[in-house]
Amino acid sequence: MNQQPLKPKYFLLAGSASTSAPAESINRAHEFVREVTKKVLDAGDGFVVYTAAEPVNEANQPLVFDWTILREIEACYPGEATSPRVVIVLAERHRRDSMNAEQRALIAKLSARGLAKIDTIPDAIVTGGNVGDAQAEHAAGMIALGGGKGVSDRAYKLMKRGIPVYPLDLKIGANSEDGDGALGLHRTFMSAPLPFLSHTGAAAVSKTPSLSLEEPVLPIVEVAARVVAILGGELAAEVCAAPTDVLVLTALPVELSAARLAFGINEETPAAKTDIGQNHWRAQVRTTKGTLATCTIATFGTAGNVDAAATTATLLMEFKPKLVIMIGIAAGMRNKTALGDVVIADRVVAYEGAALLAGGQVEARPDTYRPTFSTQQDVSNYLASALSVTARLKLARAKQGLQFPESSTAGDVSKSVMPKAATIASGEKLLRDPEKFRQLRELHGKVEVAEMEAAGIFAACTQHSVPSLVIRGISDFGDEKKDNSFHELASRAAAIIAADMVAFGLGS
Predict the structure, then answer these.
(1) Checking DSSP bridges between strand 362-364 and strand 86-91, what pairing results, if any?
(2) Same structural domain for residues 257 and 223?
(3) What does the pLDDT look like over 39-64, one tens digit per residue?
(4) pTM value?
(5) Which residues form the domain of 407?
(6) Among 193, 217, 239, residue at a domain's last position
(7) Which of 212, 248, 421, 432 is deepest in the core (most CB within 10 A)?
(8) How many CA atoms lie within 13 A of 423 on its CB side?
(9) Over the stretch 283-300, which tens digit does the pLDDT of each residue have?
(10) Can you give the CATH number for the domain in which 215 is found?
């Protein structure tokens, strides 16, 4: 499977220069901005900027940096983009009255090529504070360079949210001449770094003297690379330190690959290990509440309820998640499901529980599990929001290049991206007998899907009082035509829905 581009993180480079700043310092600032832009783009990330007029000094040197970033993005990406590399915050009156034709054309071109996402502030409420709030909504980190009170305001807005800020020492003042901006932040950072970089501040302070722009000891390109690395290290440390909100579990390699893709984890990202050697990966998903949900992705490595229960119990004690989501593939009943359908378990029937009676009689004694009431409510609300959910899922599939064939010799192929609730039968046996599949409905008349891990997941989660969900993509019909042709497609469809639910469907 080809790894798709990950969703970029957007960085805010806040600052400006005074009309009285030395020309050499202004040039150095713009060189730094261009090099930082290249390094951030190379990492697959982007920027959030605010565009209005572009003031210049008597030597016609630009005194703000947002337009420098935009021009560098255009130079680095001459073609179409798979995801935006810049969020442009603007007001229509500034686009109309303050920008020149070249600047308006630049924004239009970046937007048309998919490089820019526009966040428009209504003209009536354009203030420095509202601009800062709009930028803060998108920013994963901030670099402060020159500027005055506006830079300080943005920095403290982000720091209150726990977003990392790194200030530089270049003495270029502020276009507004209204405060110390980055210089004041830099002095504070050197004596008290943890509010700026809560996990790596002490280490960053020790590196900072070599990253001076005022008295450079390294090439600007190297300074830029190290500054980007400092912010990246802080963000990585933040993810590692965050408690797990959602534990995402898979059984098979194809399911793990789909989960990592859906949650934005590159195939080259190494796994972390627990004390017992369990591989896992961390990702953060921004929710509709504006918070970050930390997700830990792990795999059993094998199929079956016994291993699922044992591994889940161990991981519950290790990570103490608030929710467990199992994703992967399953068999669906013909005429009830289609290949590529995604189901969310409203009930799990552990069908292999039985008693051996006299005379060789077997009495079925299945156990039944259901999601907690709160989880059922979240699922119901998610499924009831069909228009918005369908639109998001179509977009997510398109970004991954996920397409289902029009037909298959194996059976009907799904025409819908919307999941549905279904009852799942869970046992230790791989089904390839349609008659055995139909017999499961004698145990519970609503069974439409069969798989091998859900019962183990629910059993372990029930014992530890942790809510759980099972999301399955239909890869076959549990009969003689069963093969692997839909494994990847079904896994990816289920994983996309799991990631969407974390962002939009839980706790709403």
Answers:
(1) unpaired
(2) no
(3) 999 998 999 999 999 999 999 999 99
(4) 0.70
(5) 242-504
(6) 239
(7) 248
(8) 14
(9) 989 888 878 899 999 998
(10) 3.40.50
